[in-house]
Every structure is written in structure tokens, then in C-alpha cells.
Amino acid sequence: MTTVGRTLQFSQMAQVSLADNRIQSLDYEEFRGVHGIVMLDLQGNVISSIERETFTSIRKELVYLDLSRNKLRRLNGCVQSLSLLTSLNLTDNQIEGFERAEFRGLNELTDLYLQGNRIKTLGYEVQGLNRLKYLVISHNRIRTIKAEQLPLSLQYVYVE
């Protein structure tokens, strides 16, 4: 499968896995009219771009989002409206950095997996994540992390 298209005709699915396909991009039409998705697994595709409004129709339900093992370079603000999201996995992409407000609105986020990217700096981007407990940033290009820029709620930071 290379596009999501009409795959999600069923409007009430709690868990959706589209992992290990050949999906290349996600636009704002992909999840329109779909509701009730709590867990969305898109890992192992070749997604290189996601439009800002892609997850708008599922933003009030989505708790878990896995975008690992894709070809993402940036998020384009696509996760900002996901206010109930608790886990975001961006492992093994090509992300070099984030907009300062990239994670704004992720008030419930507790787990953030960023390992295996090309990230050079991280700090202010995660500062407002007041419930963040687990931050995994190993296998990146980060040289310095300033503790004062990290949320006080952090319990574990994995760095290699």
C-alpha cells in the first residue's frame, strides 16, 4: 500500500496499524471523517511529509502515535493539535531539529522517543511538556543538553 486513501472507511476503530507498507506521505484528507482512533501505528513506511492538518479529525481521541522508521525530516506542526497524546514515537527518521513550538499543545505527553535521528540541539522545544517522563534521544548528533531547558517532570533521559 502506498497511500492511505479509502483504507479507513470504517469510522469507529480504536487501533489502526498501517505499519510496514510503502506509504509515502499523509495529507489532510487521509483521516477526514474517521473518529475514535486511540492508537495509530504508521511505523516502517517511507513517509517523508505530513501536512499540518492531517490528524485534525482524530485529535480528540488519539493517545498513541508511532511514526518510527520513516523518512521524516520535519513534522510541519502536524502533532500540535493532539492534546490527548501520551506517547509519540519518532525513532529512526531523518529529523534534524524542531520548530520551537513543535510540541506546543501536547499537554498529556509522557513518552517521547527521538532516537536514531539527526537532531543537533534539543531544549526549548520540550520545555513546555510538563508531563513528560521519558525522553529517549540516543543516536543523534546532540552535543549539549541544558538541564534548565528540560521539563521538571522528566524521570528518565536516555542518551548515548
Number of strands: 9
Let me know the average pLDDT: 91
Indicate the CATH class.
Alpha Beta
- What percentage of amino acids are in beta strands? 15-25%
Helix content: under 10%
Q: Can you identify the CATH superfamily?
A: Ribonuclease Inhibitor
Largest sheet: 7 strands, parallel
Note the run of SSEs as H and E.
EEEEEEEEE
Low-confidence stretches: none
Q: What structural category characterises the helix and strand content?
A: mainly beta
Query: What's the CATH topology name?
Result: Leucine-rich repeat, LRR (right-handed beta-alpha superhelix)
Q: What topology, given as strand order, has the largest sheet?
A: 1-3-5-6-7-8-9
Number of domains: 1
CATH architecture: Alpha-Beta Horseshoe
CA-atom Rg in angstroms = 15 Å
Figure out the total of helices.
0
Inertia-based shape: globular
CA-CA gap between termini: 35 Å
Protein model, in words:
It holds the Pfam family LRR_8. The protein is an all-beta fold and 160 residues long. The protein has a single domain, classed as Leucine-rich repeat, LRR (right-handed beta-alpha superhelix). The protein has no helices and nine strands. It has a seven-stranded parallel beta sheet, with no helix packed on it. It has a two-stranded parallel ribbon with strand order 2-4.
Compact summary:
By secondary structure, this protein is an all-beta fold. The chain has strands at residues 15-17, 25-26, 39-41, 49-50, 64-66, 87-89, 111-113, 134-136, 156-158.
Topology:
Layout: E1 15-17, E2 25-26, E3 39-41, E4 49-50, E5 64-66, E6 87-89, E7 111-113, E8 134-136, E9 156-158
Parallel strand pairs: 1-3, 2-4, 3-5, 5-6, 6-7, 7-8, 8-9
